[in-house]
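Bumping my old thread because nobody answered last time. Still need a sequence for this structure:
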């Protein structure tokens, strides 16, 4: 594997600035369940930079707003399953989170990462679209 730059973003604004600066050669690290496998096994060119967003507290929020449910990109599948708000108002999303891998994957994997990877077997995307 070729070397790449690794930067830990302070918050979502810092992450967006880094991604804009580096363009499509940048990759995002959140839970890491997909990126780490891609880095190890992919035949694609390695990233020029990996932007770690795991410390961006503003991406960990799960809250009900006037516009609806706001789920930050770093909210894990386990956190979605444990949330009383989600269980009461969006039980289908809890069911979808249960289908994601093993417990370890649900503890690390994020809804944001699940959607960004756009794997056809993902249950979260259709569940969110159905709620729209």
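Sorry it took so long. Here it is:
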């Amino acid at each position: 594997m070729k070397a790449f730059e690794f930067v830990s973003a302070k918050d979502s604004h810092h992450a967006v600035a880094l991604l804009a600066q580096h363009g499509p050669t940048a990759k995002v690290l959140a839970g890491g369940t997909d990126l780490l496998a891609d880095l190890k096994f992919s035949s694609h060119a390695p990233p020029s930079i990996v932007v770690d967003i795991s410390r961006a507290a503003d991406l960990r929020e799960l809250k009900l707003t006037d516009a609806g449910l706001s789920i930050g990109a770093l909210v894990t599948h386990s956190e979605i399953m444990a949330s009383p708000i989600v269980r009461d108002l969006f039980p289908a999303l809890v069911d979808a989170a249960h289908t994601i891998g093993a417990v370890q994957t649900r503890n690390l994997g994020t809804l944001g990462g699940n959607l960004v990877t756009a794997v056809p077997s993902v249950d979260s995307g259709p569940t969110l679209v159905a709620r729209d």
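The domain at 5-57 is CATH 3.30.43.10 (Uridine Diphospho-n-acetylenolpyruvylglucosamine Reductase; domain 2). Let me know if any region looks off to you.
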